[in-house]
Amino acid sequence: MKIFIVLFFLLSPLLCHEFVVIANKKMPTLSPLQIKAIFLKKLTIVNDINIVPLNLNAQNKTRLIFEQNILHMSFERLKNYWSKQHYLGHRPPISMHSQQSVKKFVKKVDGAIGYIDANLVDDDIKIIYKWSE
């Protein structure tokens, strides 16, 4: 029994998966509440930088994890939110096909912000926020 407990504690960090919210190097560090406001399009400018939030496709696993952990909203609740916002003239964040495309867009566009697996980060982008699943 002791061996299983020891193995659990040794292997549990390997079972965790890390995710990050990334932005261009010019973006300041943001709180989880600011990130949520950005992805709900309630916050559109930070330090005189127009913000461009990027989502992954609707059923992407990383997107679903982001919505649960950062937005604290289910897919259905978020869908209802954007349906209401549509009538107010607001559009949801731009959807990208892959985490690599999010990363490339963030590198090239000031104010772009997105989320990817932490293992995809390189020195050309800034980590704004990190969490584990």
Describe what this molecule looks like in 3D.
The strands form 2 sheets. The protein has a 5-stranded mixed beta sheet, sandwiched between helices. It has helices at about 1-15, 30-40, 60-70, 75-85, 100-110, and strands spanning about 20-25, 45, 50, 50-55, 95, 110-115, 125-130. It has one domain (about 15-130): 3-Layer(aba) Sandwich (D-Maltodextrin-Binding Protein, domain 2). Strand 2 and strand 3 form a beta hairpin. The protein is globular, with a radius of gyration of 16 Å. The protein contains 5 helices and 7 strands; from the N terminus they run αβαβββααβαββ. The chain is about 40% helix and about 25% strand. The longest helix is centred in the first third of the chain and has 14 residues, at about 1-15. The protein starts with a helix and ends with a strand. With about 130 residues, the chain is an alpha/beta fold.
Summarize the structure.
The chain is of the alpha/beta class and 133 residues long. Helices cover 42% and strands 23% of the residues.
